Amino acid sequence: MIFSAAKTLTSIITVALITCAFAHALCSVDVVIVKGRVAHAPSIAKVRVQLVYAKDMAGESGEATIENGTFSIPIEFLTQSRRPVVNGILEKCNRRPRTVIVTLVESDGDHEYDRVSLDFAKDFKMADPSAYTLRSELVLNRSH
Description:
Blueprint: H1 2-25, E1 29-39, E2 45-53, E3 57-65, E4 70-78, E5 99-106, E6 112-119, H2 120-123, E7 124-128, E8 131-134, E9 138-141
Parallel strand pairs: 1-8, 1-9
Antiparallel strand pairs: 1-4, 2-3, 2-5, 5-6, 7-8
């Protein structure tokens, strides 16, 4: 009877440990929030943001229209940098963009007014455990 109870308890603990290992092995989805304003905003324009990773690999992107001279674009990205070997084990979760490209374009996308290339490590700060924001105000200008 004691052997049976010990075996059952061992099985429960093993399942719990395996479940915890898999639950913590999943990489998070973080977000880069790009907020700014546009000086001399064109009447019909939008702002595009492109995340760029190591080896100049283009990643996630987003765009927004300009409202009252300002914009805010949140872009989610997966932090997984290495695929798990087996069911989430030995997964690496340190993938971050290297560069964030912000472009002010005409709504049809044919004309580019301004472009800024931001260094992720230098120009962004962690606002909370899964969100990054700019360290200083971003101003795009139509007259460039």
